[in-house]
Amino acid sequence: MGNGVTKLTRCFCCCSLRRRRRRHVAPSVDPAALESQLGHSFCYVRGDHPSAFLSSISISGAALSANASTTPLSTSSMTSSMASSASFPSIPLQPPSVSSPLPSHRPFISGPLDRAAASLSGPLHIPTSTSVPHLSSSLPFTFPKHHMPLPPSLPITPTTLQWAQGKAGEDRVHVVVSEDHASVFVGIYDGFNGPDATDFLLTHLYPSIHLHLTGILWQQGHPEDTHKQPTSRPKNRAGKARHLEVLKALSRALRKTEEAYLSIADDMLDQNPELALMGSCVLVMLMKGDDVYLMNVGDSRAVLATKSRTDLEGINQDLFNDFAGFLPSLSAVQLTFDHSTCAQEELIRIINEHPDDSAVIANDRVKGSLKVTRAFGAGFLKQPKWNNALLEMFRIEYVGTAPYITCHPSLYHYRVGPKDRFLILSSDGLYQYLTNEEAVAQVEMFLSTSPDGDPAQHLVEEILFRAAAKAGMEVHELIEIPQGDRRRYYDDVSIIVISLEGRIWRSFV
């Protein structure tokens, strides 16, 4: 972990929720081994004097690893790791030991985190971080250093920027909270065929976005100007034009980042042709005041929980059995669009772009290879030369020269309203087992019973419970399956839950 990181090695329960189907006691496991194999949970803890904007939000995060992330290019054998500044305490996902007094039917603890021994009734006091390592150097990177373009330096003082970077299998997550800019950045990168594309995104996308937004959302060297928030909903053309400029800047930053990645991959094609296989889905959220800007490529999602008519048909009956007597009151609104072969318009687009290729979609995948129809990297589906560089067993039959997939993002602006409660940002591993409505209902019901609980970790637990039940095994049996083999039961998943009500999620040690 990076400088200023607090690593907790024990779990403590802050909730009284009982679920009958969770009965086993997991054996005691070394916490360091768990972090390198299973995943981690983290949260944002405010400092002593937060701004009005930061007082109105809370951030909970969790990541669950299934894939083995090592490749011939990798510099680290750990499949899960976490680095952060002082305000993002983290802990490995960890079952209690046999001697633990905790309920035996809950193999994990959804209580949130505190960084030090604290009074159960007192506020959290977080010391100001005295140093923040450069964001691009916190986790190991797989490209040789001499091939790496230097990211732009960030004109942000360490005392006003807090951040967290995590990896779980081939997933990467990046959270940056800027006091100077009164903003929150979240990046979730869901990789495939190896971790190099996601590592590159983790290192380079946020600095690129920061650079491209300078002069639009903030001024270089004048952080005091960024505290000025709109006093009312922008209804004029100038307000709409500003939102459009922000979205265009996000798109430009992603395009420049991919161009840099593919340029490096091209330079290394003879030595490391497997780079042409590696790619990633991208989900980026930038929140400034009440304005939420979203950019996605692939099938990661942003789902809003809002107070309105609830779609009970999208909720499994088992959910009501687990939370007897509780009726969900929030609706789920998906703010992003899934770029996958499940989307009819994406299928039509790709087929129309490749009229001479009768096998453009095979086995519900683009060229029989990818379920997603847009992705960062994955050069073998974008240019024939990258496909031809691969071993024959990995090549596709490339017809013509047009790309089969693109990195053209979908872009969205949303303004938070008084009925909105929280946002769930996640890679697609969450939705292999929960619908949008179920994910929102799970968080709402969990927080009704454990208001100080960790909702992101609760969703990770729910994935494990459902995956184990589907496979006919106990959760402890599932997590004892070797890394990589567990991918048969669930995918890597990264989850960020952002409360829009100023709720503080914490636990105490």
Task: Walk me through what this model shows.
It catalyses: O-phospho-L-seryl-[protein] + H2O = L-seryl-[protein] + phosphate; O-phospho-L-threonyl-[protein] + H2O = L-threonyl-[protein] + phosphate. This is protein-serine/threonine phosphatase. Its EC number is 3.1.3.16. Keywords: Hydrolase, Protein phosphatase. Residues 155-500 form the PPM-type phosphatase domain. The chain starts with 30 loop residues before the first helix and ends in a 10-residue tail after the last strand. The chain has helices at 31-37, 52-55, 196-213, 237-267, 317-322, 344-353, 384-388, 436-449, 455-471, 475-479; strands at 39-43, 58-64, 80-84, 90-92, 161-168, 171-178, 183-192, 279-288, 291-297, 301-307, 330-334, 361-362, 365-366, 376-377, 410-415, 420-426, 493-499. The protein has 2 domains: 31-226 and 235-339 and 409-499, 4-Layer Sandwich (Phosphatase 2c, domain 1), CATH 3.60.40; 344-373 and 375-394, no CATH class. With 509 residues, it is α+β, with helices and mostly antiparallel strands. It is globular and about 55 Å long. The chain is 23% helix and 20% strand. Strands 3, 5, 6, 7, 8, 9, 14 and 15 form an 8-stranded antiparallel beta sheet that branches. Strands 4-1-2-17-16-10-11 form a 7-stranded antiparallel beta sheet.
